[in-house]
Amino acid sequence: MTNLVRNVASGADERPEGTAVQFDGTDVSYGALWRRTGQFAQALADHGLEPDDPVGVYLPNLPQFVTAFHGTLRAGGVVVPMNPQYKSREISHLLGDSGAKAVVALADLAPFVEAVRDETAVKHLITVGGEAETGTPFEEFLADGTHDVVDRGDDDLAVQPYTSGTTGQPKGVQLTHDNLTSNAEVAADLVPDGIRPDDKSLGVLPLFHIYGMTVVMNATLFSGGAYYPLPSWDAEQAVGLIQSEGLSLFQGVPAMYNDIINQPDAEEFDLSSLRLCGVGGSGIPVEVLRRFEELYDATVYEGYGLTETSPVTHFNSPEAGRRVGSIGKSLPGVDSRVVDTEARSASSDRTASDNEGFEEVPPIETGPVDEEAVDLDEITGEVVVAGPNVMKGYSGLPEANEEAFTERDGKRWFHTGDIGYHDEDGFFYVIDREKHVIVTGGYNVYPREVEELLFEHEAVADAAVVGIPDERRGETVKAYVVPTPDADVTEDEIREYCLSTLAEYKHPRQVDFVEELPRTTTGKVQKFELREADE
Questions:
Q1: How many other C-beta atoms can be found within 10 angstroms of the C-beta atom of residue 385?
Q2: What is the DSSP string of 199-242?
Q3: What is the CA radius of gyration of the chain?
């Protein structure tokens, strides 16, 4: 029996006066954090919540998120993290699907909860900051006494985040205590010499998202380091905090790195205190990585993962080496394969003992490849993974679970939906999401290849490529470009630039200049919005 919150208890035992969370100039020690989690857990119990009851956490990155998260787990409950940008319509699905009994919400967001309360199982609303007409203020909700840690099984549900919902309704991802503990511990060990008590982590990745939750908050707190949350992303503010506080760990998404290098005074930033820079969430354009490293004499290590895998499955660790353009090697304990997606589609039996419909694509000798010089369809397939970090399943969706998993060789393989290849040295390379591949005139176009080229153009600050309907070709390639300030560039110039480097069928036949790209709060481009704009 276990409970992942015991990892925070260890920090409280070993260094009760050490800083656990630092926010807006105020330190919260490990001893104080542990006491507050106990008070929150006791308050839940006093209000009738029992082990296994879900609790929604509808907050930006604030100290109260840390307390509510670990306090819920301490009481044996299940955390349901919710995007604070969501409105009533969106949270109605999350609350209804999860059956959350209580919600901790920013006071400004409380009306969205109240608007759907009658449609859900929510009985208690706890508010943070400001003044809300309903609910109990967070500090008033805390009990005087503290609750003991409720033991949980390794396979018991701990957190149920929801997929981003870029297609269809978001799915509840069932993550267990073992899923999250194992991944946070491995993530902490990926830092040279492991995360140390003197490390300070920049918390700009949203805590409702599994990347910020596991790799930043939990990995830091499990190791005795200090977590510095920021409620929203602001490149200037984030860089200022790194410089003023001497932060040592920065995990971000590609858009954050791109924002930093595009600041007017980017060359003046001093980021020398950082001893590890990690990037995930989506592939970072090579030109963005190169520019960041050139400016700050830093090495950026790319990783890969999904909500369903707690999240990290691959990483370019300093010890294992790095290959630019690669997501790295499989984490310890994680198995990875590249399988033939066409063979999988042809097979209806996903539990057979043989490998029919699950044929491995052989590795190449050494990557990355020149994507113009090889037939990507010959060396790529779908990346599948198995390991202790892989989710229990999607909540209440048996058909989705059947589609997501294949049982082979005594393992339960999760289908990521990402297309990639691997090499004989164990490095993996993801070239695109399966659903993003553009089929034009019978040829496959991988948007990331075109996007990488666009980022090399001096007039391009940001870019995204999608497929749009075309009567003759089925689909054709369209680029959305955010130009750099004062750039003087035309659509024809962008098209000719791509055509001079790429095969004719790959170049964008349409180019739209936009002020910004639609992104999720975790920095992923919402390509479905771009496609819908052309329908």
A1: 25
A2: -EEEE-S-TTSHIIIIIIIIHHHHTT-EEEE-SS--HHHHHHHH
A3: 23
Q: Are 45 and 211 in contact (CB under 8 A)?
A: no
DSSP state of 117: G
Kindly state whether residues 407 and 475 are assigned to the same domain. Answer: no
Question: 136 lies in which domain range?
Answer: 6-13+26-175
Which of 138, 154, 175 terminates a domain? The answer is 175
Write down which residue in 175, 204, 238 finishes a domain. 175
Residue from 101, 100, 215 nearest 162 by CA: 100
Q: How far apart are CA 273 and CA 271, in angstroms?
A: 6
Query: What's the rounded Cα separation, in Å, for the pair 453 and 507?
Result: 10
pLDDT digit string (tens) for 250-278?
999 888 999 999 999 999 999 999 999 99
Question: Whole-prediction pTM value?
Answer: 0.85
**pLDDT at 432 exceeding the cut of 90:** no
Number of Cβ atoms within 10 Å of the Cβ of 387: 23
Helices assigned H by DSSP within 380-524: 398-404, 447-455, 491-499
CA pair distance 408, 369, nearest whole angstrom = 29
Same domain, 171 and 30: yes
